[in-house]
Automatic annotation (TrEMBL):
Keywords: Cell shape, Glycosyltransferase, Membrane, Peptidoglycan synthesis, Transferase, Transmembrane, Transmembrane helix. The chain crosses the membrane at residues 7-28, 40-57, 69-88, 108-129, 141-161, 167-183, 190-209, 292-312, 324-346, 358-379. The lineage of its organism: Bacteria, Pseudomonadati, Campylobacterota, Epsilonproteobacteria, Campylobacterales. It holds the Pfam family FTSW_RODA_SPOVE. This is Probable peptidoglycan glycosyltransferase FtsW. It is an enzyme of class 2 (transferase). PANTHER family: CELL CYCLE PROTEIN, PEPTIDOGLYCAN GLYCOSYLTRANSFERASE FTSW-RELATED. GO terms for molecular function: glycosyltransferase activity. It is found in: Membrane. Belongs to the SEDS family. FtsW subfamily. InterPro entries: FtsW/RodA. It is a multi-pass membrane protein.
Length: 386
């Protein structure tokens, strides 16, 4: 049995890129908040080192014995934490925009939702394997099987989208849930029903939140001229006047454009100097592109695609259905997170605060990503990939 070393080395490469740009892109934040010069670089490097060791350590375990323990441990512990953190004293919880998303630990803040995504994917893989088979069923039978999962997901929507004010993570989990159910053996009709259900729930959440409505209006202001120019004049009523200008998106696009083909050089980007906030986290792709150019970011994206290819290859060659669905789910979470972030910073869709797997600064995101890859590497020993 051999671990997929190629996947391991590709992930280490992306994590190394993350550490480098945590130094380059955080210059303004360091100066503005009077941090030590290497504050973000040191913290990210430590987390990357821990993550790499964790990833390799997990890869050495036997999935038949360890995977269930880790998967269920993450699922139940993080579900409990997400519910309990709203009742913890303010000294134990870090707030963002009035929402409690991080639990304070000595020298570190933990975001339970990042680890919960891994546990949720494992729970679905384990449960779908027992509840759903390839036998042909009616739509009503499929709905009856999925009904308990829908109730569970509504609880997750409440804990994350409502209590934590984080709709982006729910979108990632919803898309992963629907795709995993389809690959587990549900019908295409159920897939369409699931998509419609998610759109309805998402619409309800958006229209009941003023800041989400304003965010969509801001996005529409940036794209309405292009869209309305190709539509009949009768659609002119869709034009929004006097909405906030999407300055973050404008600066993101300008940073990408400023990078050109070869980039301004490592450390030489200018839009990171106060024009583009959170450039080392949510807008990391724009910041990287400005400094290493389109050719450079294509190389980084190429490595990321190679990681996804290795993960999906392990999934496709795993005879154990739990392993197959779990690795598929991990690949989907990475894919949807990257797509939502990259589409948002380029104004294709409204922007959401989703970390880019491997690349964005953040301890919880990096460690959760490494745990997920470590579990996939664990499974790779059982898959026929050689």
């Amino acid at each position: 049995m051999y671990t997929d070393r190629k996947l391991f080395y590709l992930c280490v490469c992306l994590l190394g890129i993350s550490a480098i740009f945590s130094l380059s892109l955080s210059v303004y934040t360091v100066r503005f908040f009077h941090y030590e010069e290497y504050h973000f670089f040191i913290r990210q490097s430590i987390v990357v080192a821990i993550g790499v060791c964790l990833m390799w350590g997990l890869s050495q375990l036997n999935p038949d014995k360890a995977l269930k323990f880790i998967g269920f441990g993450l699922f139940f512990s993080c579900l409990i934490l997400m519910g309990a953190m709203h009742f913890l004293p303010a000294s134990f919880v870090t707030e963002s925009g009035g929402a409690r998303r991080w639990i304070r630990l000595p020298g570190f803040s933990l975001a339970p939702v990042e680890f919960f995504k891994i546990g949720f994917v494992y729970f679905l893989a384990w449960s779908f394997t027992r509840k759903i088979d390839e036998k042909k069923r009616t739509m009503q039978e499929d709905l009856a099987i999925l009904f308990p999962y829908i109730l569970l997901f509504l609880l997750i929507v409440y804990l994350i989208a409502v209590m934590q004010n984080d709709l982006g993570q729910v979108v990632v989990l919803a898309a992963t849930f629907i795709m995993m159910a389809l690959f587990a053996g549900t019908s295409l009709k159920i897939f369409m029903v699931g998509v419609s259900f998610v759109l309805c729930v998402g619409t309800i959440i958006i229209i009941n939140s003023e800041h989400r409505i304003n965010r969509i209006k801001s996005w529409w202001v940036g794209v309405q001229d292009i869209v309305l120019s190709v539509l009949p004049e009768s659609f002119a009523t869709l034009r929004v006047e006097n909405a906030d200008e999407p300055w973050q998106i404008s600066n993101s696009l300008n940073a990408i454009n400023h990078g050109g083909l070869f980039g301004q050089g490592l450390g030489a980007g200018t839009f990171k100097l106060g024009f583009l906030s959170e450039v080392h986290t949510d807008f990391v792709i724009a910041g990287i592109t400005e400094e290493i150019g389109l050719l450079g970011i294509f190389g980084v994206v190429g490595i990321f695609i190679a990681v996804l290819f290795r993960i999906f290859r392990i999934s496709g060659r795993s005879e154990n259905k739990v392993y197959h669905l779990f690795t598929l789910g991990v690949g989907l979470v990475f894919s949807f997170s990257f797509i939502i972030n990259s589409y948002g910073i380029t104004s294709i869709t409204p922007i959401k605060g989703i970390a880019v797997p491997f690349l964005s600064y953040g301890g919880s995101s990096v460690l959760a990503t490494c745990i997920a890859v470590g579990m996939v590497l664990m499974i790779s020993k059982k898959a026929k990939i050689w």
